[in-house]
Amino acid sequence: MEPYATLSIFLAPGETDVAHVSSVLGLEPDRGPVSVWMLSTEGHVPLRSVQEHVRWLLDRLVGRYAELAQLREERYWACVIFHDTEPPDPAEAARVDSELEQHDITFDFELEREDFEDEKER
Q: 48-52, 85-89, 114-118 — which is least confidently predicted?
């Protein structure tokens, strides 16, 4: 499994359409269920570095931080989730968390089991 990160914007209570997020940010999501707008580094960042994945996502938000703040005021919540088979380096994760916090974006990581990926392919 190649690591990837997602910028997930969870919709405000009662909202059911991600189109409002796309309209405000001027970005289209890669994917997402009805209640979560998602932009992913999957297939875009070939490195294992958490910082490189977060940088790619933040580069997409350049010039859109006021719009992201508007969404927060409308009770939307933004989170970057890093997916990998091993936890990120604690120092690198702390730097990433600090950088994202400047934009009021939370940071989390999700450990994926490689054997689970193998089972899904069968």
A: 114-118
Helix (H) or strand (E) holding 32: none
Longest dimension (CA), the chain: 45
Residue ranges in the chain assigned as alpha helix (H): 19-25, 50-61, 65-73, 90-101, 114-121
Q: What pLDDT digit, counting tens, does each position of 21-33 carry?
A: 999 999 999 876 6
What CA–CA distance (Å, rounded) separates 51 from 64? 20
Q: What is the dihedral of CA 93, 9, 14, 34, to 10 degrees?
A: -120
- What is the DSSP code (8-state) at residue 122? -
Q: Which residue has the tokens 């940088």?
A: 55
Tell me the C-alpha distance between 61 and 31, whole Å.
17
Strand, coil or helix: 47 = coil
Backbone angles phi, psi at 73, to 5 degrees: -65, -30
- Under a CB-based contact definition with an 8 Å cutoff, are residues 7 and 38 in contact? yes
Distance, CA of 32 to CA of 9 (rounded, Å): 10
